[in-house]
Amino acid sequence: MDQLPEKLKIFDEKDKEVIESAGPYVEDSSLKLTCVVSGGKPMPRIRWWKEDKIIAQLDPVEDETRLSLLELRIPSLKRDHFEAVYSCTADNTPIVPPLRVNVQIQLYLRPLSVEILEREQPLSVGQETDIACKAVGSRPPATITWWLGVKKMVMNTPQTGQVMTHNQRAGVIAGSAHLALQGVSRDQAGQYVCVASNVEGDGRSLPVSLQVIYKPICKSTMTAIVGVAVNEAARVSCEVDAFPLPKNFQWTLNNTLGTTELDTEKFTIEKSGRSILTYIPTSNMVYGSLACRATNLAGQQIEPCRYTLLPAVKPDPPANCSTLNLTDDSAEVKCIAGYDGGLQTTYFVEAWEADELIANVSTILPVWKLQDLGSGKALQLVFYATNARGRSDITTLRIHTLSRLALHTDAKNNYMVIDTNWTLGIVAGALCTLAAVAVITTLARRRQRPLENNVPLQTMKACKGAKHSSNHPPIQDDKNPDVVPLRKDFNSTRDFELPHEPPPYGIALSNIQPVGASKSVHSLHDRANTLHTLNTPGSDGQSISTLTEDRRSLTSGTLSRRREVVTTRTTVLTNARESCV
């Protein structure tokens, strides 16, 4: 039994079903649409149509899936594909109308043409004008921007068909297709361009010149000083800005004699809109103030250009001189110019080292750069100005060029600070380490010193006294003897020489002559032996005994002493005995 096709759908490149319209696509991009038909027995015939023209066809083919597909491919979309309608049909019998689905192609199109619709030209200052920009062939509609020369006239957020205020105070109202100028000024004259932009690109119009008529104004707003000597000619130039260019000029002189209009024979008018006056003062009474006014189609100049005419004199010296930059070999200096005497002035600087001229530079402005001065030089700079009337007085300034070592030090100042800090830290650490080692070494030596070297001074004195007391019996103390008696076999006549090393604790033996000395024995004074017993409170009954004797004997130039052993008990080492020989 025959069956009609059930469904017909169209899908794009991303396998997304297309309903009514496909895109938008960009110009020159490709397009692929797939027409899918399901069902139908026998298999349907599929066709792609553009308007009433068949552009693709798929004849019936038996397939178990019961699906039929036909692709439409366009390799490069052009402007004529914009909003074109394509149809896909499916049928398997001439009796029943075929299934049909229509698709419209959407494209983005760049503007074909952009132009400014010119208005009446020229305009006078204060008038109003409206400039229209026309963009053709833009899809979607283009956004219009206006340019004056290279400067964009920034507007608020554009909205198609509406007028936005760009700068209403200045009399400019900009819209998507219109530019309205209210109260036109001379600053608004120039080359205007409108640019139409959309996602596809930009279109620019040809520039349109907007001319604004305005009265002449001076190009320089400052009063110029002109110096001229009596019976000498001075050329004074009057330059103005105007549209159109001025055709007439008027010169006047104002002094103590009043205001006088100068004859036209004394000045000329150039095509560029400039007038040059040639003036020759015949006496000191004809100096004063000159004024120049120009006239064009817009009217006469309101504020004249002014000049002060003075007798020409030599210039004043430069003042307030100072250095701008100083190196090891160069210097930049600047001064304030004085009165130039009404004439063209040249400014000089000379660099002197003692009586030697190092540099001499001249400029038309009091700013100089001196080079090849030398490193570490003490220089005197001499400033002066000259003109046709003579040379000014001088102004001096002393400078010192940097030495290369100082410059190198300044350039590496930060690094030197860091290196110095590290050096100080290392030195301090080394000193602390050495001090600690010295303290530890001293303590260790004191602990290892023999016990006899630590005997107190009182004990050493006792030993000294004991050695000289062989003829006196020791004081006996049964409970706590301090002196040990001599042995029986002790030879009291044995002589002993003094040791070569000095006694401990700085004990000095005075009046001792070396062997072979001839000093008389009568030069020595005998002193009585004295035994001192010192009872110290809190010493648990212990006593310190000191035996002192200054008797010395000298036999044949040799010092002789009897050997005795003395035992003492000290407070430093309690419950310990010390002996000395």
From TrEMBL:
InterPro entries named in the record? FN3_sf, Ig-like_dom, Ig-like_dom_sf, Ig-like_fold, Ig_sub, Ig_sub2
Is the Transmembrane keyword given for this protein? yes
Q: Where is this region: Disordered?
A: 531-559
The lineage's top-level taxon is: Eukaryota
Which SUPFAM superfamilies does the entry link to?
A: Fibronectin type III (SSF49265), Immunoglobulin (SSF48726)
Transmembrane annotation, as ranges:
422-444
Task: Point to the regions of Polar residues compositional bias.
Answer: 531-547
Q: Which UniProt keywords apply?
A: Membrane, Transmembrane, Transmembrane helix
Spell out the PANTHER family in the cross-references: OBSCURIN, SIDESTEP PROTEIN
* Protein name per the record: (African queen) hypothetical protein
In which organism is this protein found?
Danaus chrysippus (African queen)
Its ancestry begins with: Eukaryota, Metazoa, Ecdysozoa, Arthropoda, Hexapoda
